[in-house]
Amino acid sequence: MDTPTMDTIYEAISALYDNPNANEKEKASRWLGEVQKSIHSWKIADELLQQKKDLNSCYFAAQTMRSKVQHNLSELPAEAHVSLRDTLVTHLERTSPENSASVLTQLSLALADLALQMPSWKNCISDLIKSFSNKNDFALIEILTVLPQEIDSSSLKLGENRRDEIKNELRSNTEIVTLFLKESITNSQNTHVALKIIKCMTSWIQVRAVNIEEIPQNAVIGFSLQVLRDQNSINTLHEAASDCICALLHCLEENNNNENIERLLFDSVSALEESYHLAVAHEEDEKATNYARVFTELGETFLEKIVVSISGGTPHFALRSLELALVCVGHHDYEVAEITFNLWYRLSEEVYQRDYQPLTESFKPHVERLIEALARHCQCEPDHTQLPEEGEEFYEFRSKVMGLIKDVVFIVGSSSVFRQMFATLQADISWEQTEAALFIMQSVGKNILPEEYTYVPMVVEAILSMPEGTHLAVRKTCILLLGELCEWIERHGECLEPCLQFLVRALQDKQLAYAAATALQSICKACRPQASNHVSTLMRAAAATDELSLSPLAASALMRGLASAIGCLPHPQLAVAMREAVSLQVASLAELVKSGGEVRKGTASDPCVWLDRIAALFRDVDVSITVAQDDHPCLPALADAWPVLQQVLEKYGADGRVMERWCRCVRFGVRCSGRRCAALAPALCGVLRAHYGARAHSSALYLAGVLLDELHATPAAVPHLVALLRDVLPRALALLQRDSGLTDNPDTVDDLFRLCIRFLQRIPLEFLSSGVLPTVLQCATLACSLDHRDANSSVMKFLYDFIKMGNKPRTADKQQIKALTDGLLSAHGAELTHALVAASVLHLHAYMLAEVGEVLLELLQWQRAAGHDWLQAALARLPRDRAAAATQHQCWQFHQYAMRAEKNKEMTRLLREFARLYR
After folding, report:
1. Fewer CB within 10 Å: C terminus or N terminus of the chain?
2. How far is C-alpha 62 from the geometric centre of its chain's CA atoms?
3. Integer CA distances (angstroms), 799 to 184, 374, 802, in order
4. Region of residue 623 (phi > 0: left; psi between -120 and 50: alpha; otherwise: beta)
5. How many CB atoms lie within 10 A of CB 338?
6. pLDDT digit string, tens, across residues 609-621
């Protein structure tokens, strides 16, 4: 774009911030965005800051400077960086908190980001202190705050070498910075300045720039503890002080080798208990939350030492931190209690891994008190008529409670929790207390031993004889509890029939139907053989699904329960029952196809409703069948449904949601019938070929893979499967090879390479000789850098299996397969090696590198000489930006170690360490 005039810039800024017309605001925003992207924005921002016409223009300029330095510093020649630095320093010297804190922050971030990307600027910390001291201390504090925070910014991609260099510089200047902050906090009585000083110290602690040994003399840490002790501290200062102490404790956890420092910090923090109680008494929930964070961090800091000491028979002095955390769990607000949850998760993990009964017993009292307090927090409001629903904060909290209890329950035993809650139920308590106790029981229901004969039978009997007038929330939790007791019910067959009858009756209440259906599903799945005696009862319930107006989710759960029961019938009866169950849904689907009415999601006019029910039936029928049997009792039901399923695809196939559910339905039908559905292969392959050619929906590729899994051993089906691949592959590859095709279509990448994996595993010779591999490998090479967990994983698994064919062919046609694989690897190996290395260091998250390491290791082992040259060339092509790059020596080291790696763990570790040099 041409350089705009300053008047035009001011007009656009005014329109963005002051014009009430939304269209004009949007237009100004887009135009200013283009200005920011242009090379002219450097000069424009500088002029706006010099003129200081108004706050909005200054903020726009400062934000532009920060964005340009962060993302577009390469637009300026290296020799211009010094001039830019001096300009930013000048602008910052002229700022003051009274004018605009936001402008100050943006300019400070710009200067910090520039310093981090200027390796030539040596001793930047001392230079900044010299430049700003006695001129603008407030700006200096802001710069010293944001600079450590930006070191690990993902936008800057500094690289480990530069990050280490900066962190070392911070450590070497800690003393002077600490002294500056001490003087600032001594000389200033301004609360806002004190807040900034504490935040600055927190930043330095978080990057491990503060020496733990110097904590006793650190004035800012002492001031933070004083703030936390002072009942009258303002909330923002109190929160900042809490952040500072939490950061310090987290740092101590990694450097806890000085018992004097440990005891000093522990005593200082634990002494805050009185302040916590005062905050609770004065209903200062924000401060109570801060104390809960500090006490929890205190517990986590010493947790390992506490566990190790108790394992050795000696209590640790920091054991009291668990008591402090329990005090916070007892707070009236469940959000305060929730802060401590990670501490209990970690405690359960430490205790479980050691598997030492005396250790487990030591923490039993803590967990009993925890569960008792959680039961109180899980109580609903007395004036509520229903349980909290998904999406509500209280529902999410109760879900977390359930997860936490399942993690810690082994410490006290599920039966003990059941007994504890049962005792609560014996008292004369309110409905919400009753429901909460039952909810805790529900959390441990599946862990109850089948031999429990004392409390569970009484609870089940009480549920089954529950009066109709019982509060709705209590009834719903009782139903869910029955579902969780499914494994206990399986061992107590006399309970099954009354439980099923109770749940079938509950289906008639719309507010209880989903809970009842899911409980039926759990019980029928756990008690398959016994449930098969009650198929008629479940079939009647399934037939009445629409009459009962069950939700789609409830209906699907009921169908899955019915299918579990049907699966254990003798085969002749199974075939009849399955056809009946499926035909009920197919008939309604056929009527829908004929009607041609408007589709309303989630109603009877939605084909997905019926497809989901059919899918549920085939998914859970789980038939036992021998290899010698040529027929399958579920095949007649699938054959009956197929003509209608074809009609559904023809009519609704353009709707991606329907197509996905259609493929899912057919997938479960094919999985259920296995190779016995081979007669349907020509029709299935033909339908998928035609549909994918028209719409290229990725679920069709996934279904094609399922067909290959089930039918590859049937000779008559193989030609149809290969023809299907030949027809869909060009369409899929064309979609992915467009601009942004990979990032826009991760599902297609995932499903396409899953399909290719199955061809490699099932019929490799046909696949390798099909002529499609060169294009597939080119696409895989491009997709190596795709930052999408599932899609990238499928690409890597394909490449691994493909290269493995060249190293160790796994079929009888070894020589032919190896020859084909070797030829392809020779042609594509060099580019693939570069793609894997570049993806590792420049694009992918660290957690994704294990699979990349597997592929690279296999590739380098294919032919050592070729791998040596390919890896060397790949490293030479990596970027050499000094702010984020490996040195030549580091590249040489990586090359040497990678060529010697023999296990994937070694290669993954090497890749992760090498990648840190670039980001």
Report:
1. N
2. 34
3. 59, 49, 5
4. beta
5. 20
6. 999 999 999 999 9
